[in-house]
Automatic annotation (TrEMBL):
A biological process from GO: tRNA processing
Protein origin, superkingdom: Eukaryota
Main localization of the protein described in the UniProt heading: nucleus
Polar residues bias (residue ranges): 7-19
Subcellular location: Chromosome, Telomere; Nucleus
An example Gene Ontology CC term for this record: chromosome, telomeric region
Keyword annotations from UniProtKB, A to Z: Activator, Chromosome, Nucleus, Telomere, Transcription, Transcription regulation, tRNA processing
Role played: Component of the EKC/KEOPS complex that is required for the formation of a threonylcarbamoyl group on adenosine at position 37 (t(6)A37) in tRNAs that read codons beginning with adenine. The complex is probably involved in the transfer of the threonylcarbamoyl moiety of threonylcarbamoyl-AMP (TC-AMP) to the N6 group of A37. GON7 likely plays a supporting role to the catalytic subunit KAE1 in the complex. The EKC/KEOPS complex also promotes both telomere uncapping and telomere elongation. The complex is required for efficient recruitment of transcriptional coactivators.
Protein name: EKC/KEOPS complex subunit GON7
Length: 101
């Protein structure tokens, strides 16, 4: 029989010296039994919690990036990023940049 005494927890925490911190937590009850159907249901709940948490983290990080840009612009640092194509940066996010010749 599955251990029902403690829920599993999915957490995401962000701290920064310049931005407001945030954290998200999701409690996911463990399967009520060792039955395959119960385990499948648990894994589905876990997968959904991960997807929801990722969406919230992305939203929060995007907001903080905008705060950083605003802060840099108001501090006179806007010229430091003029040569960066923001659309291209967004399109290639998470991928290695390929130099175009």
């Amino acid at each position: 029989m599955a251990d029902t005494s403690k829920d599993a927890s999915l957490t995401a925490t962000y701290t920064s010296p310049t931005n407001e911190a945030f954290d998200f937590a999701r409690n996911i009850p463990p399967p009520a039994s060792d039955a395959v159907a119960e385990k499948v249901q648990y894994l589905e709940a876990l997968r959904n919690a991960v997807d929801e948490t990722q969406a919230l983290v992305n939203k929060e990080l995007t907001a903080r990036m905008e705060e950083d840009k605003t802060r840099e612009a108001s501090a006179g640092n806007a010229t430091t990023r003029l040569d960066v194509d923001e659309d291209k940066e967004e399109e290639n996010y998470g991928e290695e940049a390929q130099d175009e010749e």
